[in-house]
């Protein structure tokens, strides 16, 4: 028998608590009300979220208990496996050890149900029967649709138009779970109609889709809003990824030197990285932690650390974060989940503190890495996840060049079974690298709100 590849935990070892990095970071800049620019209170968020999620959003407790009914559903796919990518190591001829935490084993095919299930459960406990949300690639939308089907909640998803057109099977999955999927910008909301008036051929953006979903929730008291990334409580829910990985590395005899994940809004990155960062912040060893983003939407590497709105219509609170500006519309490259103008406030704070690094890649290099990974390990990564694969391969090749046997761990946040159209375009030569419009970025950053708190 050759050396072990999969490192798994028993269902009884699903974490009982979420890890809250707010307990170990310095006090962050306040979240501000969009109209008054005063710090928001729980009552300001009540039109959007049930109180239990609001309390999680503002909590500074290190551990927050995961409800038993939520853990019971997690048993459908958790704990997810930690896998040693031995065949990829051989293909690269690297002395590095490469591991990946595989989140594509969930029913929806990505890490997103880790937050969709608890968000739906807390809404159900509050008597909510209707939720609205946005989605880019569709991983979050299909995950919330799945969660809604379990709890009898009607879900309406506003999907960024270019992804809506690129990924019809992801839309079909949402509908299979019982959700309604609408191309954004749409004619159903004021913010959607405004976006279409400005550009009838708009490819859409997560900022516009968020505006549409938030508008519906604010105008209808029986509807709440659910978000798939960026906010503290979403990142909190994802920390079960890293907590499991820490336990699994105890089984391997290794300890990661480099932690890698793709980053759009920050959910899967924080899910893997924050528990390891927490160890460091509490006196443990320092690791390199790398957030990988698309060069066509380079929020961390090119964005400004400033207060900004989370959406294009300026309906959401002001958060200090790395941002390209709320009016920025990225080109329609295939990693739809990474096409967001802002980065989580907590991830941005960690970057400002020098706790993490950031790297940006063009999509052709990422698809090349995704294909190389698939041919070695058999799993076709989602376009978003190929960014982490690209970085992991580059780090392994660096180890080869330097003669270092470092241990690398990356988050394979989802499979690409609904993204094969993008792979078809890659193989046919139709997939091209896309750059953002520098003038549009400058204009968007020039429109950042003036905030006295800065």
Write structural notes for this entry.
- α2 packs across α11 and α11 packs across α13.
- This protein folds into 2 domains: 143 residues, Rossmann fold, CATH 3.40.50; 240 residues, Rossmann fold.
- It is globular, with a radius of gyration of 20 Å.
- It contains 19 helices and 15 strands.
- Strands 1-4-5-15-10-11-14 form a 7-stranded mixed β-sheet, with helices on both faces. A 4-stranded parallel β-sheet has the order 8-7-6-9, with helices on both faces.
- The mean pLDDT is 94.
- The longest helix has 20 residues.
- The chain is of the alpha/beta class and 454 residues long.
Beta-strand fraction estimate: 15-25%
According to DSSP, the number of beta strands is 15
Number of domains: 2
**Anisotropy-based shape:** globular
Distinct helical segment count:
19
Pick out the low-confidence regions. none
Per CATH, the class of the largest domain reads: Alpha Beta
Architecture per CATH nomenclature, i.e. the level-2 architecture of the largest domain:
3-Layer(aba) Sandwich
Mean of pLDDT: 94
Evaluate the radius of gyration: 20 Å
Largest sheet: 7 strands, mixed
Structure class = alpha/beta
CATH topology of the largest domain: Rossmann fold
Roughly how much helix do the residues carry, as a percent range? 40-55%
Tell me the strand order in the biggest sheet.
1-4-5-15-10-11-14
| Separation of the first and last Cα atoms | 60 Å
């Amino acid at each position: 028998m050759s050396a072990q590849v999969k490192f798994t935990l028993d269902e009884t070892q699903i974490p009982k608590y979420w890890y809250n990095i707010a307990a170990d970071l310095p006090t962050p800049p306040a979240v501000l009300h969009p109209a008054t620019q005063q710090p928001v209170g729980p009552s300001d968020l009540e039109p959007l979220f049930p109180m239990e999620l609001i309390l999680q959003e503002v909590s500074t407790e290190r551990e927050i208990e995961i409800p038993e009914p939520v853990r019971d559903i997690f048993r459908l796919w958790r704990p997810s496996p930690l896998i040693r990518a031995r065949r990829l190591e051989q293909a690269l001829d690297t002395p590095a050890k490469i591991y990946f935490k595989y989140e594509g084993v969930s029913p929806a095919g990505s890490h997103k149900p880790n937050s969709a299930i608890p968000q739906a459960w807390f809404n159900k406990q509050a008597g909510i029967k209707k939720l609205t949300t946005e989605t880019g690639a569709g991983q979050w939308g299909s995950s919330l649709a799945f969660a809604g089907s379990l709890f009898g909640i009607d879900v309406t998803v506003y999907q960024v138009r270019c992804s809506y057109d690129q990924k019809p099977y992801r839309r079909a999955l949402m509908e299979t779970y019982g959700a309604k999927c609408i191309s954004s910008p749409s004619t159903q909301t004021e913010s959607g109609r405004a976006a279409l008036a400005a550009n009838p051929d708009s490819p859409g953006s997560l900022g516009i889709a968020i505006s549409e979903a938030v508008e519906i929730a604010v105008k209808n008291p029986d509807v709440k809003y659910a978000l798939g990334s960026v906010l503290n409580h979403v990142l909190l829910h994802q920390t079960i990824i890293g907590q499991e990985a820490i336990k699994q590395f105890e089984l391997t005899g290794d300890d990661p030197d480099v932690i890698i994940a793709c980053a759009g809004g920050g959910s899967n990155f924080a899910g893997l990285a924050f528990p390891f960062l927490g160890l460091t912040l509490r006196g443990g060893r320092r690791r390199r932690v790398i957030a990988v983003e698309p060069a066509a939407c380079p929020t961390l590497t090119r964005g400004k650390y400033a207060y900004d709105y989370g959406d294009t219509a300026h309906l959401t609170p002001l958060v200090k974060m790395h941002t390209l500006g709320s009016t920025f519309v990225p080109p329609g490259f295939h990693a739809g989940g990474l096409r967001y103008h802002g980065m989580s406030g907590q991830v941005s704070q960690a970057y400002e503190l020098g706790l993490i690094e950031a790297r940006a890649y063009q999509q052709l290099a990422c698809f090349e890495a995704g294909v190389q990974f698939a041919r070695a390990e058999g799993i076709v990564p989602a376009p978003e996840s190929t960014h982490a694969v690209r970085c992991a391969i580059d780090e392994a090749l660096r180890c080869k060049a330097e003669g270092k046997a470092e241990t690398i761990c990356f988050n394979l946040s989802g499979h690409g079974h609904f993204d094969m159209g993008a792979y078809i375009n890659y193989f046919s030569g139709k997939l091209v690298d896309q750059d953002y419009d520098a003038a549009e970025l400058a204009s968007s950053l020039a429109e950042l709100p003036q905030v006295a708190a800065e």
